[in-house]
Amino acid sequence: MRSTPWIAGLALALAGCGELDRFDIPIEGTLAVVGSPVEGVALPEDLPFAGMESPDFRKAFADNGASIDDVESVKLSSLRISVQPEGANLDFLDGIEFFIEAAGQQRRRIAALDPVPDGVDRISLEVTGAELKPWITADDLTITAKARGVLPTEDVTLRAKAIFEVDAGLL
After folding, report:
1. Average pLDDT score over residue span 48-56
2. Label partner for 22 (CA 20 to 30 A): which of 68, 74, 104, 132?
3. CATH number assigned to the domain comprising residue 155
4. Is 149 domain-assigned?
């Protein structure tokens, strides 16, 4: 079937209506874990990753040409953790989960991995795929981590990288 030029133009115009601009916002954090010379000492449950506690999503939106009012959807697409120095592994970590919190919203788990595999130096957590817009657009957002395990025998540094996928409506 042949289409006339005006039908093709109308189809293109309609395709632009409600179009979303998608972009990713990476949030990174680090945590120094002081090793214990005594084996079996419990790892603190709360793990404060510096740089992840109160990310500035408003600035990240602006950096991507969007405002908070443009945001239609935000989801965590990935969260990875690696350990340094080279040669270290995550054997001291049994399980880990990340939560998001904001005023007026219930605390929500956004990613977890339990159990953490033995002998690895990096992990990808399972993300929930939950809609996070109400938390991300709040003024007092916090991201926290909880873990189970024992302190490593040597000092290590954990590096976390979360990628948030944002859908913002074009004006």
Report:
1. 92
2. 104
3. 2.60.120
4. yes
